[in-house]
Structure formats: structure tokens, C-alpha cells
Amino acid sequence: MVGFQPVDVPPTAAVKFVGAGTAACIADLLTFPLDTAKVRLQVQGEASISEAMGKVPAVKYRGVFGTIVTMVRTEGPLSLYSGLAAGLQRQMSFASVRIGLYDSVKQFYTKGSDHVGIGSRLLAGCTTGGMAVALAQPTDVVKVRFQAQARSNEYARRYCGTIDAYKTIAKEEGIRGLWKGTGPNIARNAIVNCTELVTYDFIKDFLLTSTPLSDNLPCHFVSAFGAGLCTTVIASPVDVVKTRYMNSTLGQYSSVLNCAAAMMAKEGPLAFYKGFTPSFLRLGSWNVVMFVTYEQLKRGLMAANHSRTFLHPHS
């Protein structure tokens, strides 16, 4: 079997924390164009920034691959990675908490018991998801703003760089602007975390106890893919509202609920599933890369630490 084999010593909280952030960054690097296409499709249909400034409406996108092709043709290939710096900053602070601390928080709620019920898993997912949003929300706001803005020379870009984005948002919208959309993002990540981690947990447990699969790559792949599909179906409506609200200009929406109501009134219920295909392609592939990498990193880091301890027991 390719990859590190299971180790006898369970990974420490620090190993899980670092491993989760690193694995999430690797997954982001590989799937970022799909995420950018998803954001462009989600914000399409609302009053665009260009229209708000009295300029020509933005380019219309059709489908995930059509969006990617249009972006490459009109803005260049680098546009697919617009906001990558903020995205990686987000994952190192965000995934480290929501995924890396999940097992520790789950053990806290069960008081170290071997029997872990659905309630404890859901509570742990909600807790780490909320903690992660509170910490990393500014990076998410900047990432979404960069992904949503067109890089065509016809339109003035909102921000020149990541640092400029943080400064401009804080200056024009106040510090609260960096935490814009925290409410829907907490709701989204409570849903995402619970669905993603709990589904991965359950599918993995089922495969290990009811099928010939062992705790290795095929098991991790199937579990991650299933978790990605379930998460996309359940979390898409909240994700679209979150993206629209975080990308909105000052005063465009009076609240998150106003944003959702405006979408329903102007575009109908299907608007809440805009960008579903890229969302699934992105979240499915992201989950596979992240969880497989995470499982391997945990084992690799623990194996390296065990070898070092074995070679230098008194260091």
C-alpha cells in the first residue's frame, strides 16, 4: 500500500493542528481555480460592482469550465488564482482550528470516553467551526473580494494587493468590515464542519467495521468524497448568501436576511444553488486531497517524531 502505514502512537494535538493547516493549503493550491469559478458564478446575477459604478455589466459566465475559459481569455490565467495569498492565510488559521482541533474538542465533550455519539460529534464540529470563523474571517473576506473582482483593464480594480485589501477595507468600512458576513459564515461553517467531519467520521468508521478496507488510502479517499458530496448539497444555500453578502458594497444589503430575501425575490430559489457544480467539484476534490494528505501527514509526522525519540532518547 502506498503511503505511511498506521502508527501505534496516536498523533498529538500539535501534530493534528499543523497537519490540518498544511494539508488544507496543499488542497487549496490544487483546487483554487474551481473555487474562484464558484465565486464568480455565485455573485453573477446581483447588481455588480461595475454596474454600481455606472459602468458596463460584467462578463457573463456559463458553467464551471465555461467560467474558467472565459476568465483565462479575458483576464489571463493568473486570474484563476486571484486571492490565493489570502486563501492560504485563511487555511493556515482556519483549517488548523476547525479540523486540527476537532478530535481534541470531541474528546473534551465525551470526557475521554471511547464511545462517541452523534451529539458529541456535531457539538465538536459546531464549536471548532465557530472558533475558526472568529479567528480567520478577515482572510475569508479578502479572499472572496479578490476572487469576485474582474482583472480586465476596462474596470478599476478594488484592491491592488492582499495587504492593500486589509488596509482599504478597514479604512473604508471600519474594523467591522473585515468581519463582514461573520454571521452567515459561522452558520455555513457550523453546517460544513458538522457535515464534512461527522460524515467523514461515520463513513470511515463504517468502511473499517463493515468492509474489507483497512485504515489506508482507499478508505480515506471514499470517505472524503462522500463527505464532500453531502457537504455541498447541504451547505450551498448558506455559502451563496455568504459570498454575496461578503462581496457586497457598503449599503447594498441591510443585513444577511435582506441579502437572502433579495436573492429569492429577484432570482428565485435556484439562485441559492448557483455555482453548485464548481462547488461540488471543488469541495469534493478539496476533501479528497485534504483528508488523504492530512491522514498521511499525521502518520509521517508521528513516525518522524518516534524515530527521533528512538535515536535520541535523552534529547
Automatic annotation (TrEMBL):
A Pfam family this protein belongs to?
A: Mito_carr
Q: Name one GO biological process term.
A: transmembrane transport
Regarding the membrane, this protein is recorded as: Multi-pass membrane protein
Q: Which UniProt keywords apply?
A: Membrane, Mitochondrion, Mitochondrion inner membrane, Repeat, Transmembrane, Transmembrane helix, Transport
Any GO CC annotation of this UniProt entry: mitochondrial inner membrane
What compartments host this protein? Mitochondrion inner membrane
Give start-end of the signal peptide. none
Q: Which residues form a coiled coil?
A: none
Q: What is the reaction catalyzed?
A: sulfate(out) + phosphate(in) + H(+)(in) = sulfate(in) + phosphate(out) + H(+)(out); L-aspartate(out) + phosphate(in) + H(+)(in) = L-aspartate(in) + phosphate(out) + H(+)(out); H(+)(in) = H(+)(out); phosphate(in) = phosphate(out)
Q: Do you know which PROSITE patterns this protein is assigned to? A: SOLCAR
Q: Where are the Solcar repeats?
A: 11-108, 116-206, 215-300
Entry function:
Antiporter that exports dicarboxylate intermediates of the Krebs cycle in exchange for phosphate plus a proton across the inner membrane of mitochondria, a process driven by mitochondrial motive force with an overall impact on glycolysis, glutaminolysis and glutathione-dependent redox balance. Continuous export of oxaloacetate and related four-carbon dicarboxylates from mitochondrial matrix into the cytosol negatively regulates the oxidation of acetyl-CoA substrates via the Krebs cycle, lowering the ATP/ADP ratio and reactive oxygen species (ROS) production.
- Partners and quaternary state? Homotetramer. Adopts an asymmetrical dimer of dimers functional form.
* Similarity section: Belongs to the mitochondrial carrier (TC 2.A.29) family.
Q: What is this protein called?
A: Dicarboxylate carrier UCP2
Gene source species: Poecilia reticulata
